[in-house]
Amino acid sequence: MTGRVALDDLAHSSREAIEKLLDENARLRNQLAAAQQLVGELELIADSDPLTPLPNRRAFVREFERAVAHVARHATPIAVMFVDLNRLKSVNDQHGHNAGDAALIHVAKVLSDHVRATDVVARIGGDEFGLVLYRLDQAAAKEKADMLVRQIAQTPIPVEGGMIEVGVSIGSTIITSEDSFATALARADIAMYCAKRG
User: Fold this and answer.
1) Mean pLDDT value across residues 132-145
2) From the record, what ranges are coiled-coil (predicted)?
């Protein structure tokens, strides 16, 4: 009988140990899920512009690198645009920083509303935005840039004390499979300055 009692005690001890391991496993899985959710939230914060609902420069660079890889694999045209909000400093000086923020948010919205869901719009600097536009050759990119300039110019922004109008200058270039972020953005930046002059 003592052998039977010993076996029963062993079985009971084993069940308790297994239950403890299962409980610990469930607890660790819950902690892992919570940690993964937190990492996802932190990545989203790290990739988001704090003012506009757009990705920031860090996220834009990553999307640009994906676009370069896409061009290398599929040989489809992809345009990158550099957008500069004209005279933001004078908006801030004349109407205050809230008006300047409203102008940035307005431009972000107009840009986002007039591109496809597969395209990327990001705020990459103080008054600068970047766009990656898939399946767009140089002629189509020029048409898109002209349309965006018109849309932004035609939609005044309500601010305290009235309405203000803002404008943008846009330069574009077609991404090549050899491009780095710096080289493509430099070409788009030069095109933007040419557009700004005239």
Assistant:
1) 96
2) 11-45
